[in-house]
Structures are given as C-alpha cells and as structure tokens.
Amino acid sequence: MDGGLDFNDEAVLVKALTAREPAALAFLIDTYHSSLVRLADQYVPSRSIAEEVVQDTWLAVIEGIDRFEQRATVKTWLYRILLNIARSRGTKERRSIPFALNPSLEPEPAVDPHRFRRYSRRGRGQWKQPPQPWGDPEEHTLATEAHAVIRQAVAELPPDQREVVTMRDVLGWTAAETCNALSITDTNQRVLLHRARAKLRTALEQHYRQGRPS
Questions:
Q1: Which CATH number fits the domain 134-211, given the four candidates 1.25.40.10, 1.10.10.10, 3.40.50.12780, 3.40.605.10?
Q2: What contacts 24, CB < 8 A, 6 or more positions away?
Q3: What is the pLDDT of residues 14-69, one digit of tens each?
C-alpha cells in the first residue's frame, strides 16, 4: 500500500508496476516470494538455487511488465514466468552434476557389510548386527516422517503431476488458478491431481507398512 493505493486492485497494481513504483514490487514480493521459492524448490537441487530462480523471476517481472497484456492475472503471469525459469534452470542443473558427484548414481551396498559375519559354519552372510524392529509408527514423530516421505514422493512424480499437486495441495491454489497458470484444461488438471495424490498416498502406505513389526 503506498499513498492510499490499493494494490489488491489488479488495475492499480499493473499501473503501478508499469510506472516502476517500488511499493508495487514490494507488495508482490511480500505476497508471493515464499510460495515462489516453494514452487521453484520442486525443480532445482537446493534451496539456494530456488532463491536464485525467484530473484531471476523478479528481474523478469520488472523487465517484462510493459509487455503484460492482462489476459491473465498478475499472479498467474508471475507464476508462469517462475515456471519457465525454474524448468530451464532445473534442466541445466541436472546436466551440470558430474556423475561421480551424484550420490544417487554411486554404487553402494543396501546394508553396511560390517553388519554381516564374513565366515561362519553356515557360510558367509550371517548377521552380526541383525536389523531391529521399527516399532509402531505412532511411537515415531509421524508428522516429520510423513513430511519427508511426501517431499521425496513429490520429487519423484512426473513433472506435470508434480506441478499440479504442488499448486493445489502445497500452495493452496484453486483448480481454475492452476489451469490458468499451466495452460491446461480442468479435466486434465483433475486427472493429474488424482494420479499425483494416489502416488503420494501409496508412498505413505508403503512407508508405514515397512515400519510395522512382522
């Protein structure tokens, strides 16, 4: 708000942004910065890079506001810019990670070899330190576990499903806002959201099923 201007009014906001009013950009940053970072974080390998993506988004907003045709809301336009930059940066970062530095590609044993006996009367491979039961999931910090499992499952979703479920369930967007930002039909949005939620639910079920004692 600056000089009595109501930046919640789309026309007022666009006019102020076009005039390069600092208060208008500050309003956008205060309103959307954190959610932009959360969305960018789905595409790049670290929070610091996600912050860089958002900074590039703000620069693009300043440079591109004169070309904004108001066929979409400022919010939708802003997130479209973010998505384009985040997708491009994510692809670049994946290409730039050396094979030897990518821990997901490094061969490693599923269980520490030191937990097995090298030799025994029954042969090699006897437990020295057998695995312990996980116990009842309620005994663990369920909220933290669930968050970690869901975050990993979201990262493994196909890009279109990840975008939809992030906008709907993480950022709290409506179906219409999601469709406008991603330029997809409502039917497509519903299908993608259903599939994404089903996969996340399956990931949680598998996690807690594995955690139950036999």
A1: 1.10.10.10
A2: 2, 5, 7, 13, 16, 17
A3: 999 999 999 999 999 999 999 999 999 888 889 999 999 999 999 999 999 999 98
